[in-house]
Each structure stands twice: as structure tokens, then as C-alpha cells.
Amino acid sequence: METLDLAKELSSNPYPGRGIIIGMSPDGKYAVTAYFIMGRSENSRNRVFVEEGAGIRTQAFDPAKLKDPSLIIYAPVRVLGNKTIVTNGDQTDTIYDGMDDQLTFEKSLTSRKFEPDGPNYTPRISGVMHIENGSFDYQMSILKSNDGDPNCCNRYTFSYDNPKAGEGRFIHTYKENLDPLPSFEGEPKKVSISNYIDGFTDMLWNNLNEENKVSLFVRYINIEDGTYTTRIVNKNK
Fold first, then answer.
1. Boundaries of domain holding 195
2. Does 1 map to a domain?
3. DSSP 91-156
4. 73 assigned to some structural domain
5. Which pLDDT score is estimated for 71?
6. Residue 109 has pLDDT above 90, yes or no
7. Average pLDDT for residues 223-231, to the nearest whole number?
8. Within-domain flag for 149
9. CATH number at residue 207
10. N or C terminus: fewer CB in 10 A for the chain?
11. What backbone phi and psi angles, to 5 degrees, belong to 57?
12. Max CA distance (Å), the chain
């Protein structure tokens, strides 16, 4: 698979929606993840990321302007022991609870499907990172309608064992900025990861569409001891 230029992927698409990146730094020291949100409506843009324990939560920037919180207020990142869960919706909690009950990542998601926001039927994208005894592997998932048909949910899980240093995978909700919004197609895109959290964070944020970007989360987790460094960027300040 071709390694894509992540900066170009982001800058060339004005509305990829929400996106998850997971991979390993080139020096092999860090498991890396990033999650961003974008918005076209006032309600979607009225958000910030805030830290909540070891994870993060979306929060209304101006509570007075919050309309329907059902699909925009959730915990995108939660940590369960040596597992870091990253998703674009409240399925974070579904995965957390399922894996806490010894279900697999894939099995935990069988009770969920795409979002009920027709005609877009936004895919639910999810990832889980597992770090233990100096080793790192991860999985990613997409639950999507069948080409816009809500009668069928297509389920895809991708597993990456012993990932290659410097390499990551990128999945996002929308293929392009149309109306209705077409779902992401294919397997997660192969992209490059940086050794440096600040440079990687700046590259991501600076290449997201200025009008539509809302918030960005980036975390580098030390594979040897599990300690981590986090960056959060919010457009609303």
C-alpha cells in the first residue's frame, strides 16, 4: 500500500469530518494517536476538547448555543488499563464496557451501527491501542451504511500486529464534502508518523480546513512504561 502524504490528504479535503490516526513513531519509542473533529453547523462548531481523567470529552464552548447534544457530546478517548480507546462517538463507552467484560474490540461493537443522522448516516469509526511489556498493537473499525442504505450496516475491523516504526493508519468519516456526505471507503490509509508530538500536532492542525476544523487531540504513549504526553488544540478559546 502506498504511503500517503498526510498533510496533503488533509489540506486537499475541506471536510473529512472526524478522523482517527494510530501508529508508531519512527524511533519505535511511542505509540501515537490523534483524533480531530470538524463541523459545518453552528451546533457542531460550538465544541472544545477537555481532559477527563486519562481521556478527553467534548464540551459545548458556549452552553447557551447548544442545541442537540446527542451526537456531538461524548468521550472520544478513554483508557482501560493498558488499552487506549479512541472513537468518534459514544461507542467509546460501549467498547470500554465490553472490553471490561472481557469481550473483544470487534464483539463489543456488534450492538452498535452507524449514526442515525440520515441522509448522511455518518460512520462510526473506532480504534483501540494495546500496550503491554514493551509491545504495541492496535485495531481500527468502521461501521457504515451500505452506500447510504440504512437497512444494512457494513462492519469492518482492521488489525495491526507489531506495527512498523514510522508508520500509521488514518481513517475518517467522509470521503468528500458533498451533500449528502458520502462515507469513507476502503481500508485505513497508510501515512507517516513523526517522532515529535509538537511538530506532528502542528502539521495536523495547520492542514485541517480553517473554516471547518474544531478540535484536535494528539497523544504519544511510551511503549516501555505507558507514560504519555498529550496535546489538545481548540479553535474556540
1. 6-234
2. no
3. HHHHHHHHHHTT--HHHHGGG--S-S-TTS-PPEEEEEEEEETTEEEEEEEEEEEETTEEEEEEEE
4. yes
5. 87
6. yes
7. 97
8. yes
9. 3.60.20.20
10. C
11. -140, 150
12. 47
